[in-house]
Amino acid sequence: xxxxxxxxxxxxxxxxxxxxxxxxxxxxxxxxxxxxxxxxxxxxxxxxxxxxxxxxxxxxxxxxxxxxxxxxxxxxxxxxxxxxxxxxxxxxxxxxxxxxxxxxxxxxxxxx
Amino acid sequence: xxxxxxxxxxxxxxxxxxxxxxxxxxxxxxxxxxxxxxxxxxxxxxxxxxxxxxxxxxxxxxxxxxxxxxxxxxxxxxxxxxxxxxxxxxxxxxxxxxxxxxxxxxxxxxxxx
Lengths: 112, 113
Fold this sequence. Notes:
heterodimer, A: 7-stranded mixed β-sheet, about 55% strand, B: mainly beta
């Protein structure tokens, strides 16, 4: 299995600021994925991050709001920019390994 | 667009009871996945189904891939307190690879000792 860590585990931020979330995996993986889980809701895919290329965003998500970096095969960052209270969610990274999706523990973000 | 609806939304049961939950879609899926999410954790894969009509078990958990390919069921037998969590069904978005997933609305399970 894959061991995925995320930093920070949680944060409380002021509106208008930005937060960068880090995701580290213990294996080299081609694709990493970022999901959002709004309070009491299901998971929604934000984007796919491939090493060496620009991230691919799903409908309703844009690069200016959620810029992503993928500098190597074990690491990715997601930035939540110009935050508003509606961005309060759990943000999870995910990887595919041996045909299975593994998820990180999530970053719980609260925007005041 | 694609939607996965789960029922029931929540269940509050006594330890030892059997649990049944389902997931339905308006579109066909070629893979069904069942995940469990515990508080403060990401989802963990419980069972994967790849063929219509398939019935697969993982310990006390049994899941079935519906014949119509538009639904799936998860059963938990003899529930224990550690079964508490949110159970999600999931499938590949728009029939694509199984690494881009759409998740169901979730079923919250609470088990009273």
